[in-house]
Amino acid sequence: MMLRNRYNTGRKKRGIGKFLLVLLALIVIGCGYVAWKLLTPYGPQESAQAAMETAGGVTVSEQENWIDFKPDKPKANGKSVLFYPGGLVKPESYAPLAHELAAAGHHTIIAKMPVNLAVIKPDLADDILAAYPEEQFVMGGHSLGGSMAARYVVAHPDALHGIFFLASYPDEKGSVQKLDIPALSILGTNDGVVNMTKYQAGRMYLPPDTVYYTVEGGNHAQFGDYGHQKGDGEPSISEEDQLKQTVKTLLSWLDTIK
């Protein structure tokens, strides 16, 4: 009888052990699935993929930590552009914007962020600026990328010649309000991703002479080419129209920077 009880007890313990192992495996798989869903980035669509090709007087090349859009005929005294992508958006998604800026003569570089989050490596600009020491850069970004760009500018006030925000805003740590630096902010009226309360509050961290531009009918995702973003508003203008307005505004602003 005692041997049978011991046998039954041992079998129960093994059964509990197997159950716990299965439960642990399910938890690990579940956490992995959730992390995969949360960290799956938005990727470049057809227009962005096409803009990654060398064409139209722009040479496109990829480095380990950035994508380079170099004009064959750089604009005399034109500023170069350093761009931080939005959170969980692949850098190639902004190729149409970068290609257009480069076609107008401005060397443009898109940073490649670890796991597509600028908050992971906000100082990536160090490597880019060091690679092109003879050039004068402005810096900016889309959404989270713009906020992280502002923090970089604050930490390196003498390294950049301007800051711009696409559907983005600075926070207290990225306040450029007291810096003697040109600033530009562009926002679409149908943006459903930007927290408008924080966006309005972020104005206090911008210089008083900041240039603001509103894209009527534009939304959040159409500053890049990566498809619909969860929570975003529906645009009432085309992606091409939003890109055209954004490029025109950026180029006009860049022309004012000495």
From TrEMBL:
One of its GO terms (molecular function) is hydrolase activity. InterPro entries: AB_hydrolase_5 (IPR029059), AB_hydrolase_fold (IPR029058). The keyword Transmembrane helix applies. The chain crosses the membrane at residues 20-39. Pfam families: Abhydrolase_5. Gene3D superfamilies: alpha/beta hydrolase (3.40.50.1820). SUPFAM superfamilies: alpha/beta-Hydrolases. Keywords: Hydrolase, Membrane, Transmembrane, Transmembrane helix. Residues 80-243 form the Alpha/beta hydrolase fold-5 domain. It comes from the Bacteria. This is Alpha/beta hydrolase. The lineage of its organism: Bacteria, Bacillati, Bacillota, Bacilli, Bacillales.
